[in-house]
TrEMBL record:
Gene3D superfamilies attached to this UniProt entry: MetI-like (1.10.3720.10)
Identification of the protein by name: Sugar ABC transporter permease
Cellular-component GO terms for this entry: plasma membrane
Location relative to the cell: Cell membrane
InterPro entries: ABC_transporter_permease (IPR051393), MetI-like (IPR000515), MetI-like_sf (IPR035906)
Species per Swiss-Prot/TrEMBL record: Haloarcula salina
Protein family according to the UniProt entry: Belongs to the binding-protein-dependent transport system permease family.
Residues that span the membrane, as ranges: 24-46, 58-78, 98-120, 132-152, 158-176, 183-207, 287-307
Topology relative to the membrane: Multi-pass membrane protein
Pfam families: BPD_transp_1
Keyword Transmembrane belongs to the record: yes
Matches recorded under CDD domains: TM_PBP2
Length: 320
């Protein structure tokens, strides 16, 4: 008998509890943790977003209670949201963020699919070693990896990327000083950080494709590309789509790459929306405005994920 079953039996043995009440008590610890670390911060953020909170008035109250009740911050309604939605910098950050999501996810899917096909091929030897090497970047702290990639994309001649360009006859590039060269550097680094996760999901999906389907396609005269398009892709579509939605959300929330590379530069041109919210809240000390940016971003990424799950029919059968 499992621990959960024994706990349920003990709870149900209490005279004044019926089965429904016992089930609720088992869920309460999880609900408490969710409320403390997820629900409450979001609700507090919503509260700040409708005030003129800044360091001077938010911390004017006494102790923790004063901060939780927003100190001396005044209620301003939807003014912060109106200011944000009429700020050209918001729309620049909004557009750059979605462009980054689109390009980085495309790069991650393409790279992970190619790597997964290699490590699952019958022609490849040492698959276990290859898989261990592939997931190795997951064990490194992201800040360490991003710092290394910043050195690789250094604008100096000794930067690894510039050395590679020099080796093939090209001149040095000021990677982090130009808008689109920095954007390319963001994408490459993001792909490096996320590809192990994508490869794991894709390899698992490829291994679940029935071999009989490939054999039947071979009998029908289908070549590699035809089998890939008509057998492999339809079979792995759902797992890869699920992983793509998760990594899209991660790309949307990316903060470290642009901030460590050049703080969203040059001149805030590549300022992703999380960096934009951080700068407004902490650099300009506009807590209410920064909270409004975060809520707007949360609404957009929530709608994006819901739409993809709905259209991709990833929740089919959950209610069963």
């Amino acid at each position: 008998m499992s621990t959960v079953t024994r706990a349920a039996d003990r709870i149900e043995s209490v005279p004044f509890l019926d089965r429904g009440d016992a089930s609720l008590l088992l869920v309460l610890p999880g609900l408490f943790v969710f409320s403390a670390f997820m629900l409450f911060p979001v609700l507090y953020l919503v509260g700040i977003s409708v005030t003129n909170a800044d360091p001077a008035n938010l911390f004017a109250g006494e102790g923790v209670v004063g901060v939780l009740t927003f100190g001396d911050a005044a209620f301003v309604g939807l003014r912060n949201y109106a200011d944000v939605l009429t700020d050209p910098q918001f729309w620049n950050s909004f557009g750059v963020t979605w462009l980054f999501v689109a390009t980085s996810v495309t790069l991650k899917i393409g790279a992970s699919l190619a790597i997964a096909l290699v490590v699952t091929s019958d022609l490849v030897r040492g698959k276990r070693l290859l898989r261990a090497l592939i997931i190795f970047p997951m064990g490194l702290p992201p800040i360490f990896t991003i710092t290394v990639w910043r050195g690789i994309f250094s604008s100096a001649k000794f930067g690894l990327m510039n050395q590679l360009l020099s080796a093939v006859g090209f001149g040095s590039v000021a990677w982090l000083s130009g808008r689109w060269t920095a954007f390319v550097a963001y994408n490459v680094t993001e792909a490096w950080l996320a590809y192990p996760f994508m490869v794991i999901i894709t390899v698992s999906a490829l291994q679940d494709v029935p071999e009989e389907l490939h054999e039947a396609a071979v009998v029908d005269g289908a070549g590699f590309l035809a089998r890939f398009a008509h057998v492999t892709l339809p079979s792995i579509k759902r797992p890869v789509l699920f992983a793509s939605i998760l990594t899209s959300a991660a790309s949307f929330q990316q903060f470290l790459i642009p901030y460590v590379f050049n703080q969203g530069g040059p001149a805030r041109a590549n300022e992703l929306i999380v960096v934009y919210g951080y700068r407004e809240a902490l650099a300009f000390q506009e807590y209410g405005r920064g909270a409004a940016i975060s809520i707007v971003a949360l609404a957009f990424i929530g709608a994006f994920m819901w739409l993809n799950v709905k259209k991709g029919r990833l929740a089919d059968g959950v209610s069963d």
